[in-house]
Amino acid sequence: MRPSSSYLLVVSFLALFTVAPATDPATESKKPVMCPSSAPQCGPGYYQPEEYNATPNLGYNKLFELQHHFFQRFVYPNNTVEAESINSAIFADNVIGRVSDTRVFKGRELNTEYIFGLFVKQPYASVIGLPLSYEILAFTGNQNIASASTRVQINFPSFPDNRTLPVTVNTWLTFDSNLQITQYDVTFRWFANLMQMLLLSLDPKNPVNATAIAQKTIANAVCTQHNIYCKGKNLQYKSTDDCMEFLTKGVRMGQSFELGDNTLLCRNVHMSMLKYRPDEHCSHIGPTGGGMCIDNYTYESKVNEVVFTNSPWIPDGTSPHHYHGLSSNNPK
Asked: What is the H or E stretch that residue 111 is in?
């Protein structure tokens, strides 16, 4: 049945006087805006898409499982598989990592190289060893945060007797809802003692000569890898002699805490990355240090450096200070 013409006329007439509800500008401005995928941790006034959560409540058992999974992939030969993947799925795309005696590493590709590629079996002399097995000694987990003390058996083939030694690694990890690591803070416990023992094993009766042997051996390894991978625009040294001259006389050997400074030891670390991305890493072993092997840290700047912004290190943190921790001057 069709509506009468008089009915349609009345409806049209009333529509002319119908006023839409008023819009409150203040309310409109408070509408949440979706976080961009590159910045999953947003402040007030933002929301995250339901399919992603930077701080999920994963529970103790899942966190313990993820902790095991990380170390299972860290030991040889699994670490070789991860390194060759270039972008390990263990890490989130925006992962931020710090290793106490080196530097801060950002992004999945860089962290894949340094966490897995650095510890694969190497054909040259290096202070870095080959992780063979692990045992988690202590663990706790809350929300998306896992903390553990793990004893890793590491083989050091570049030193006498091809020794395998226990190394304690303390880790703090955060995971997102994809179960990927978004942050890690790693400390190699008693690393100075380990380095001293390894170097002295080269000449137990003469520490000075032991250091000289290590310096020449490591420099030769760095120069050899440079000649293989750093060519054309990536060339850092004119010749092997030029390379050896700089690495044995132009830069210090370095102490155990200087693997991220202008030292030979730092260049030994970065040497392992050359085969993955020469364009990125050749400058790190060169005279300039390429922004990685440089002396730009002081003790205070290292301690006070603000590194982690992907997730609070304190469960259920909602304020910006949770990224830095709590103190009597910065109460919750």
From this structure: helix 108-111
Tell me the per-residue pLDDT of 118-152, one tens digit each, with 9 for 90 and over: 999 988 899 999 999 999 999 999 999 999 999 99
Could you tell me which residues come within 8 angstroms of residue 257 by beta carbon, excluding any fewer than 6 positions away? 100, 101, 191, 192
Q: Cα 186–190–193 angle (5° rounding)?
A: 140
Domain limits of the chain?
52-189, 191-306
In DSSP notation, 113-174 reads IIIIGGGS--SS--S--EEEEEEEEEEEEETTEEEEEEEEEEE-TTSGGG-EEEEEEEEEEE
Q: Which fold has domain 52-189?
A: Nuclear Transport Factor 2; Chain: A, (3.10.450)
Q: Which residue has the tokens 């943190």?
A: 317
pLDDT at residue 24 is higher than 90: no
Q: pTM for the complete prediction?
A: 0.80
Q: Report phi then psi at 69, rounded to 5.
A: -60, -40
For residue 283, the one-letter residue type is: S
Q: Where are the beta strands (DSSP E) in the chain?
A: 33-34, 46-47, 91-99, 104-106, 130-142, 145-155, 164-175, 181-189
